[in-house]
Amino acid sequence: MALVLPIAASRRGACPTLDAPMQTGDGLLARLRIKGGRLTPAQLARIAALAAEHGNGLIEITARGNLQVRGLTAASAAPFARATDALVKIERGLVVETPPLAGTIRPRSTTRAPSPPPFAQRPRCYPPGSVPRSPSLSMAMAG
């Protein structure tokens, strides 16, 4: 793992990562995309301890469910990255989110719409309150 130069705060649309933190008003910000999206309480406690040791101790949860660690320095970012990598698996690379119904829009050149994917043909219904949901969850059904 090679730590690259921090992303300038003036660069709009930049996505800070563990390998390429971004300069902010309170130091470097590193975003962690945990593989599988799950942490044990012990792992979270250790990440919090690492954030306090190498940064200002502030951890935030982003809108997409990633963790942000703030207040890292040029000297502390690499040790923080190594320690975090040893603790949990971090997803790297470009994030591409594909809607589950992508490709089901009827092309103008045909008269018949393609069939939706199998999971969309059999939507599941759950009683209200039986499935925990995120406040940012959204669903759209086209038909």
Write a structural description.
The chain contains 3 helices and 4 strands. By secondary structure, the protein is of the alpha+beta class. It has a domain at 22-87: Alpha-Beta Plaits (2-Layer Sandwich). β3 and β4 form a beta hairpin. It is globular and about 30 Å long. The N and C termini lie far apart (46 Å). The model has no long low-confidence stretch (mean pLDDT 75).
Record the SSE blueprint:
Layout: E1 22-24, E2 27-32, H1 41-54, E3 59-61, E4 67-72, H2 77-87, H3 118-121
Antiparallel strand pairs: 1-2, 2-4, 3-4
What would a concise description of this structure say?
By secondary structure, this protein is of the alpha+beta class. It contains three helices and four strands. The chain has a domain at 22-87: Alpha-Beta Plaits.
Uncertain ranges: none
Largest beta sheet: strand ordering: 1-2-4-3
CATH architecture of the domain at 22-87: 2-Layer Sandwich
Oligomer: single chain
Strand content: 5-15%
How many strands?
4
